[in-house]
Amino acid sequence: MYGKAFAPEFQGALRNLSVNTNYEDALAKARAEVARATEENDGLALSQARLVESEACRRLGRIAEADVAWRASFRAAKAADEPGAMAWALWNGGTLARQRGQMTAALRWLGLARDAATRAGDVVALGYSVAGIAETLRIRGDYAEARDLHEKLLAEARKRGETRHTVWALEGLAQLDRNAGDLDAAWERFAEAAQIAEDGGDERGLAWALRGMADVLSLRGEHDEALRLLAKGEQICRRMDLSSALAYNRKMRGNILFRACWYGEATRTYEEAQKMFRAINEPRGAALAELGLLKSRDKLGRPRPATERDLIALRDSLDTRELRHTRKMVQDALDELIELVA
């Protein structure tokens, strides 16, 4: 029913790169192609190579380099009057903005990517742009709108038999189910996503699906099996140099250890995750890791007033417009702590 996964963001001379290519290797090949396209004054090829450079840098956590590369990709595409290439560059810029916690900018760039893809008649770029919008809305806490987009994307992806898009949409819907407390529905979607990703050779999608399955298992109290699945996902992240995914994998490990009441190990794990997120300038992940860290230290007997003070500082550091859902999670933890003290 579904074909083998491919990476449409790998274009031009780099289209033969596997969806599972290690990102250090992809970056080296992209930069070699940038040099060739620049020398030959090939605008479209330059835009395509810069896109791969940006995506590789983003996945590796080299945020400043990714920012320079996607903007260069867009400029080259615009100069060459290639709206399809412009759409892909804008998609990448929007995805990078979301990773940096800049949700308003992400929605702006992704909206422009959607418009450019529509003008170009690039169905795949259009799908990626709309999927990016759905994911950004979900992370920001706009669940109803995100669910509607994810469901439409899932139906379209199933119709065309696209492995990566199907997996992406299933994982988005599964996360919405999990957030709504419907663990059975979340498990079914994560498990289906994992199976489709594995069958289609989409290791990136598989790593995220395994993380989701581990989350659901731990919420059901099956902590050892959850850690086993998470370790399998970690191996994929390390093999492909997926810095952001690896940091979220580590943060989820902290969550599972916390739920299992292994607070000392959870504390050390959250500290590792926080360092990883800070190294790649990902504020949302860093805030979530710090939240877990504060809750773990509280369980280990840290004075409550100190924890309350730090939770307030963390809450106030989060922009209400950009990271309001993350801020709400911190506020919920603070309210729970105040209740316990009272």
TrEMBL record:
Entry GO terms, CC: cytoplasm
InterPro entries given in the database record: Bac_ResReg_Asp_Phosphatase (IPR051476), TPR-like_helical_dom_sf (IPR011990)
Coiled-coil zones: 20-47
Origin superkingdom: Bacteria
Main location as per UniProt: cytoplasm
Record's keyword terms, sorted: Coiled coil, Cytoplasm, Repeat, TPR repeat
Localization per Swiss-Prot or TrEMBL: Cytoplasm
Keyword Repeat: yes
Family according to the record: Belongs to the Rap family.
Protein name per Swiss-Prot or TrEMBL: Tetratricopeptide repeat protein
